[in-house]
Amino acid sequence: MPQHESTRWVHAPFNGLLLAALVLGVAVTATTENSGDNGSVVASPSPVASASRTVERKAPTAKPRRTKEPVPKKPVVRESMTPSTPLAPSRKSSKPPANPRGIVYLTFDDGPSPYTPAILDVLRATRSTATFFEVGFRQAQHPATPAHVRARGSNIGNHTYSHWDLTTLTPAEIRSQVARGPRSRCVRPPFGATNPRVQRVFRQQGLRQVLWTVDTLDWKRPGVTHLIEAATGPKVRAGSIVLMHDGGGDRSQTVAALPRIIATLHQRGYVVRRIPGC
User: Fold this and answer.
1) Fewest C-beta in 10 Å: which of 159, 182, 190, 240?
2) In 3D, which of 139, 142, 132, 136 has the Cα closest to residue 243?
3) Is 129 within 8 Å of 278 (Cβ atoms)?
4) Among 142, 159, 163, 245, which one carries the catalytic annotation?
5) Is the CA virtual torsion 19, 21, 24, 25 positive or negative?
6) CATH number of the domain that 181 lies in?
7) How far is CA 45 from the centre of its chain?
8) For position 269, what pLDDT does the model report?
9) Would residue 142 show up in a list of annotated catalytic residues for this protein?
10) Distance separating alpha carbons of residues 164 and 198, to the nearest angstrom
11) Is residue 174 one of the residues assigned to a domain?
């Protein structure tokens, strides 16, 4: 047998074995690449299956029903209701003049609050009274204070339930605000905002609108000296209604200024009294 034929025969089985080994190696490699962490085979998604997936669509949200009356705005709260420091009753007192030349009416809005008892202590020490135009939802927060105000000889006016601008509300909403506010024959619209529609509702409810003639702007906290000057200055005369606040924010300046305010009014010959008929 020729040499080249023997060589071809000897290498033929080897070539077959080499081919089989190569095929087996490819199969093992493919299995390893498509296996998960636990050794199981993970099938790759086909392009056709991915393209045919159904996308779930959310059902459209139902539109809210319209109400006949607009939703009122949130209550206006200027500052925190909590005093930064504990309030102590004032020891300063002033006696009213024996022969007064007139009455000055001090009024306090937006309470009751933790500052109201301190103001009542000053009024008692100076033999004075005042009118507190209180807010309904704050009366609920301080339920014992209204009776305390009346027991000290002062009275309470209606400052609505939630301190909204009544000129932006419908007549029905105005009636609701007044009806849920403090019980009184006097009403003071928040911010002093009023118009013929608001006043008509007041008349229908048998209420007397009470505004003010002097605004101390104490809610801005301009300083004790400024408050004393504003509440006793040239604009203040017999029959004046002075606006201050016992609620709605930090009223420590108002409490601190009040003894000096009343003492100065006494020196000018005025007495400080509540508004009659409220």
Assistant:
1) 240
2) 132
3) no
4) 245
5) negative
6) 3.20.20.370
7) 55
8) 97
9) no
10) 12
11) yes
* Residue range(s) defining the domain that contains residue 188: 103-273
- Single-letter amino acid code for the residue at 9: W
Residue 137 lies in a domain: yes
Tell me which of 109, 121, 246, 250 is the catalytic residue: 109
At 109 the pLDDT is 98
Total of domains in the chain: 1
Cα 10 to Cα 58: distance, rounded to the nearest angstrom:
72
Task: Note the Cα 210 to chain centre separation in Å.
Answer: 26
Task: Count the Cβ atoms, other than its own, within 10 Å of residue 134.
Answer: 30
Residue 84 lies in a domain: no
CA 12, 15, 17 angle in degrees (round to 5)? Answer: 110
How far, CA to CA in Å, does 59 sit from each of 20, 28, 56, 62, 69?
A: 59, 49, 9, 9, 29
- On the question of pLDDT at 65 being above 60, the answer is no
Known active-site residue 109: yes
pLDDT digits (tens, 9 = 90+) for 142-154: 999 999 999 999 9
Determine how many CB atoms are found less than 10 A away from the CB of residue 18. 11
Question: 7-54: per-residue pLDDT in tens?
Answer: 333 343 434 433 333 333 433 333 333 333 333 333 333 332 333 333
Q: Identify whether 94 is part of a domain.
A: no
> How far apart (Å, rounded) are the C-alpha atoms in residues 4 and 70?
106
CB neighbours of 15 closer than 8 A, spacing ≥ 6? none
C-alpha–C-alpha distance, residues 176 and 179, integer Å: 5
Closest CA to 120 of 255, 212, 278: 255
